[in-house]
Design goal:
single chain; about 375 residues; mainly beta; Neuraminidase; 5-stranded antiparallel sheet; 30 strands
Length: about 375
């Protein structure tokens, strides 16, 4: 089956990325997953869905260029169940500089193009694309473009509604002042919210969150850092049905610690600092639309998941990932019953693999193994 795509022509970043698995759940609470895996000198993007009995691949690989590598994949479902995916491609490491591209496609019986993408600079390097789909089934794509020579990191957001439309101009900063970590969420009325981290003069990296008011990005007060002079980054953002944002991020403090803050309407309220020093890769979700659920990677433990209650943060079981394995990245989703699911990539002497588990209410239950191949 052929794949036609929304494509921006771009200059590549020559690198082979880790699996970076992502997870979503459909309206039957069936999981869909996407990841990057190695095949010879390149990495390829793959998407699968659970049909109630087994994993079904959506096409073969996402790659349009057999000599190019996929760096990361982002996946979303529309209200009618249509799957949308975005990914970037670049030449394999060691092959030099060539043309690359950022792709967006939707699944019918194959990955199909919706319309030509907006024209972008052929000299820019694009990566870190993220996709969300709103209540009307329209995809929103956030991505980063780096202009060679200028050291500018331009972050752009576009919505597809019969054609692609940029939302405002690019949010620009120089590479030295951008942590490159950001997160996108859609709130009530399909209003986009954004969390990001950047270096502020005479301070350190600070986490900010804001929303689009129809004309510009409006921040929610100042930075979320516990201390504006100490590094904070890697935000994860959720927005509840009332439009209240909650952000989890890493705050440096003799090692990194997890911090969660919620907007009260006038200030950022601290919801605690769950977990241990050295935590990384925080990921937030909402259980039944209101209760924050936080997944992270912690030293000696691996994957952890906690849920916020009136009494504070409650650990949801233990031993999610393989003891002793190095956990790379993870993703989190919550089903219609309010139970979290977590997917992660891990590596040990037995090799590289992707794990998927769901919370049953009293324990973590490993799900059917994903058809992931670590490659040669």
């Amino acid at each position: 089956m052929a794949i036609s795509l929304i494509t921006w022509r771009l200059t590549p970043v020559a690198a082979l990325d880790p699996p970076r698995p992502v997870l979503i759940l459909d309206n039957q609470d069936h999981p869909w997953a996407a990841w990057v895996e190695r095949r010879g000198p390149v990495t390829v993007g793959r998407v699968v869905r659970w049909d109630g009995t087994l994993w079904v691949p959506l096409g073969d690989v996402l790659n349009q260029d057999a000599q190019a590598s996929v760096s990361s994949v982002s996946l979303a479902l529309a209200p009618d169940g249509t799957a949308w995916v975005t990914w970037g491609e670049c030449p394999a490491a060691g092959t030099g500089v060539g043309s690359g591209s950022l792709h967006v496609a939707r699944w019918k019986t194959a990955w199909e193009e919706a319309a030509p993408g907006p024209a972008r600079s052929p000299e820019a390097v694009a990566e870190r694309s993220e996709i969300k789909v709103d209540s009307q089934g329209r995809p929103w794509v956030l991505w980063s473009e780096i202009t060679p020579g200028s050291r500018l990191d331009n972050v752009s957001l576009a919505i597809f509604d019969k054609t692609w439309r940029l939302v405002g101009g690019a949010l620009s900063t120089d590479l030295d002042s951008s942590s490159r970590a950001r997160d996108l969420a859609l709130g009530p009325g399909d209003r986009p919210f954004l969390a990001c981290s950047r270096l502020i003069d005479r301070h350190d990296f600070q986490v900010f969150a804001g929303a689009w008011d129809g004309q510009r990005w409006v921040p929610f007060a100042g930075p979320l850092n516990l201390d504006p002079d100490v590094y904070a980054g890697f935000p994860s953002l959720v927005v509840d049905p009332k439009g209240t944002p909650t952000v989890a991020f890493l705050q440096a403090s003799d090692g990194f610690k997890l911090v969660v803050k919620r907007w009260t309407g006038s200030t950022w309220e601290v919801l605690g600092t769950p977990g241990s020093l050295g935590a990384r890769n925080p990921k937030l979700a909402l259980s039944l639309g209101t209760a924050p659920v936080l997944a992270a990677v912690e030293p000696l433990v691996g994957v952890t998941v906690r849920q916020r209650s009136n009494a504070g943060w409650v650990d949801l079981g233990t031993r999610i990932s393989t003891p002793g394995a190095f956990v790379d990245t993870l993703d989190l989703a919550v089903d219609s019953q309010g139970n979290p699911w977590v997917i992660w990539a891990e590596d040990d002497q037995q090799g590289q693999r992707i794990g998927l588990s769901r919370w049953t209410g009293n324990r973590w239950e490993p799900f059917a193994p994903l058809p992931f191949s670590a490659g040669p």
